[in-house]
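Hi R.,

Quick one: here's the UDP-glucose 4-epimerase sequence you asked about.
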Amino acid sequence: MKILVVGGAGYIGSHMVKMLLDEGHKVVTFDNLSSGFRDAVLGGDFVEGDLANTAMLDDVFTKYKPEAVMHFASYIQVGESVQHPAKYYFNNFTNTLNLLNTMVKHQVNSFIFSSTAAVFGEPEYVPIDEAHPKAPLNPYGRSKLMVEQILADYEHAYGLKSVCLRYFNAAGADPGALLGERHEPETHLIPLVLQAISGRRSHISVFGRDYDTPDGTCIRDYIHIVDLCSAHLLALTQLVKDGVSQRFNLGNGAGFSVQEVISVAEQVTGKKVNVIDAPRRAGDPARLVADATLAKNTLGWSPVYTDLATIIAHAWAWETK
Ligand code: UDP
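And here's the predicted structure, written out as tokens:
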């Protein structure tokens, strides 16, 4: 297939582009390089552009004639979304609308959307399945849920079919260390711990040890980037075949605490990290774990790199490259 990957120069998008190319698909990456890197796009065609530029977007569809679109381009910092909601609604919602409208115009009807566990808000139960109430706590989560909601309207009115994939904590790196996590600024736990171990940072802060969890630190569901991408590929294949829109939660189904991540990182690297206890970070639920049964049963998806040590080892190989 020919697939337009929007945001293909970012962390998840670049791993996706690599997998699509490895599987023999044709890829066009569209990215404004606001947080992505040109050299992370390992092949296919590349267009530097912004979704706000609808004329340019239109030209891309006319020139490359994609059969499907995967959309990874969004801002992802929860705290920033509270400070600057306009930025988040503009980029994550309005710009996505531009993309969807261009798809409708060019009659491209298959859309894979990067959604997030943040659409659920404070969990009412864990593990979180697709039926869990959607009550996002911040503009970031709301901007993603709004897209999920309008996709139902676009399907009804325009026949645009979609799969929304709600990521829990994407982590790890390409097993060959060709790609990895390069956020600027970095806010995610695993790369921060590894940067503290490698000496790029002085320490890792633990945001709260008084949560209602066995060791008092927050529990998250870390899913390997390659497993995340393989779910996208299966979702696209099935969407094109069956034309059935769906929403899936994607995680390992296993939770690991902040302290466990630090301990496993020390084991994997054989080095100690300087840990500083810090206050809770606003808006952090104690426990976020996915129930990914639906994705497994419906897509035949089976994550390969479920072991935290493997996820961290791949991230470490990238960090030390
Ligand atoms: N965390 C931490 N110190 C850091 C960064 C993150 O203790 O420097 C904690 C954070 O409070 C959360 C977990 O690690 O409980 C995962 O945070 P991250 O930002 O990686 O992902 P999120 O779950 O917020 O999407």
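Residues 169, 187-189, 192, 204-207, 218, 220, 258, 281, 284 surround uridine-5'-diphosphate (CB under 6 Å).

Cheers,
M.
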